[in-house]
């Protein structure tokens, strides 16, 4: 199964401000009552959006169709629910740019081909200001060149090398490679008494 | 002589299968725990790929998040919940996975069932599609919370792709003062190091306080490692660990037991091993701690006041305090003590073990839940529930005015019918105070120890359990 090589993501962007945006906010627990991920997009930031009474950035029609989400520090903290990056992806986003990401969220996002890249706070503020001034502005998140381009300008991005490599080379879903290692798995298991017997 | 190694390094090396192309490690997961919320999609992916479960004998399931804690007859009134439990049953039967179902007498929160059954063992790797899998680290295991695609990976290959972590040793020295519990220790650690302080780290908890802690207490601390941003937390295995495991259904028996104990001893961190970071906290400096805000790092001692954004040390902190105060409807600078509560919840994988209910039951007689407060006690497992019934602990709670419920995750994340209503304030022994966490988008959560929950329940407001229940310094 050939996976898409995710090297650049170009599209309009929207800012969801704030640090420590947790996965309960990204997708409240009641939306987890499902046996498939198909319908998760509609639950994205559901309670925040309801509380904002139409004023949430995701409900602002000028940002409709945005494919890049700009966030703050420690984005995606909390629960390990993959439902959170799934909801972001199902909503139509293909990249999240934030100051930092919580560990499990970052891994879950990478495994489903949602690019999570880090940028400096000042640079994210620059990007936010640029899209606020012109919501039709297109950003290009370039994983290969490690920069985010907009108009004539650009800011640097950073990303954990293993994830960057996996996205660019189309091996972000590790299952195929893991399956190839089954003989080696047997050897490792044989050396573990709690797995193979005391 | 070999270089001294930490438990993390030893367990990692023993389970590393090979390096992957992107530099990550293919890590063998010796024990896979699954539950109804994050597994059905993974089984669906498995079916789509035409794959089977690689090691069904190393996979164990129970049902916890969505189960009602009062009316347990099936079908459940919530058709979505009913669909989820049926999917789990079907998937386990189809793949030959051991499943601790509602009728087994062994059902409970997955992070309690593993230890109770002796499935959770030192030196092992454990994964589960739930962030509080870190709980199992209390036994000296590397226990990882994972997402659903990784649940699929582990089901299909018994491995996952992972980058190694750094190790931070957190030593809590000396003694805890009376009325200060394991919950206060972890809330204090998170408050001190921050909710993202643990990013990239495994936390190794050590020091005299942990040496003396029971397994229940160690589990409470390891449970909330994730709230501190750490991927895993662990305590080195010792006599307390072995004593707990001995005789449990899945623990090694006879001659195997002796071999196992010798092996478990050998996985503990070697004296003099290198750590990426060391933090030392004095046990005496920890007070009963309570959160006032919307993340678990926003905690203060019961003697302190809610922070004032005007005194924040940075613009960021000012914003986050302001946002939290607005959501919590608290006054800046007001004492946390005396904050009115509507609900008291004693439960969750953090604090719903036998010792939690025992400790509260010591002090509860002679007290009544305050008028207007809804107080619910939810044992984390059917085994805890059974022992509480045997010891009459359930009766103590009922007589004090608590509702005594059946085992499950309940109001910690409110995926079952136990939910806050409107902007109710809940004194909660659980692990997260995020906006909307307890089932109402405007509900407010104050995290604290079980005895502090009891103190709030009987006084109707946040109170110092040491005063309410007349705890004194030991002479």
Automatic annotation (TrEMBL), chain A:
Annotated keywords: Amino-acid biosynthesis, Branched-chain amino acid biosynthesis, Isomerase, Leucine biosynthesis, Lyase
Pathway stated in the Swiss-Prot or TrEMBL entry: Amino-acid biosynthesis; L-leucine biosynthesis; L-leucine from 3-methyl-2-oxobutanoate: step 2/4
Domain Aconitase A/isopropylmalate dehydratase small subunit swivel: 5-118
Pfam families: Aconitase_C (PF00694)
InterPro entries linked: 3-IsopropMal_deHydase_ssu, Aconitase/3IPM_dehydase_swvl, AconitaseA/IPMdHydase_ssu_swvl, IPMI_Swivel, LeuD
CDD domains: IPMI_Swivel
Top-level lineage group: Bacteria
Reactions listed under catalytic activity: (2R,3S)-3-isopropylmalate = (2S)-2-isopropylmalate
Top EC category: lyase
GO cellular component: 3-isopropylmalate dehydratase complex
UniProt-listed Enzyme Commission number(s): 4.2.1.33
Molecular-function GO terms, alphabetical: 3-isopropylmalate dehydratase activity; isomerase activity
GO terms of biological process kind: L-leucine biosynthetic process
The protein's assembly and partners: Heterodimer of LeuC and LeuD.
Role: Catalyzes the isomerization between 2-isopropylmalate and 3-isopropylmalate, via the formation of 2-isopropylmaleate.
Family affiliation: Belongs to the LeuD family. LeuD type 1 subfamily.
UniProt-recorded name of the protein: 3-isopropylmalate dehydratase
Source organism phylogeny: Bacteria, Pseudomonadati, Verrucomicrobiota, Opitutia, Opitutales
Automatic annotation (TrEMBL), chain B:
Protein origin, superkingdom: Bacteria
Residue positions binding [4Fe-4S] cluster: 349, 409, 412
The enzyme's E.C. designation: 4.2.1.33
One MF term in the entry's GO annotations: 3-isopropylmalate dehydratase activity
Domain Aconitase/3-isopropylmalate dehydratase large subunit alpha/beta/alpha: 9-460
Top-level enzyme category: lyase
Pathway noted in the entry: Amino-acid biosynthesis; L-leucine biosynthesis; L-leucine from 3-methyl-2-oxobutanoate: step 2/4
Reactions it catalyzes: (2R,3S)-3-isopropylmalate = (2S)-2-isopropylmalate
Keyword vocabulary terms for this entry: 4Fe-4S, Amino-acid biosynthesis, Branched-chain amino acid biosynthesis, Iron, Iron-sulfur, Isomerase, Leucine biosynthesis, Lyase, Metal-binding
Requisite cofactors: [4Fe-4S] cluster
Cofactor details (free text): Binds 1 [4Fe-4S] cluster per subunit.
Pfam name, any one: Aconitase
PROSITE patterns: ACONITASE_2
Alphabetical list of HAMAP family matching this protein: LeuC_type1
Subunit: Heterodimer of LeuC and LeuD.
Family of the protein in this entry: Belongs to the aconitase/IPM isomerase family. LeuC type 1 subfamily.
NCBIfam families (UniProt xref): leuC, PRK05478.1, PRK12466.1
Protein role: Catalyzes the isomerization between 2-isopropylmalate and 3-isopropylmalate, via the formation of 2-isopropylmaleate.
Protein name: 3-isopropylmalate dehydratase large subunit
Gene from which this protein is expressed: leuC
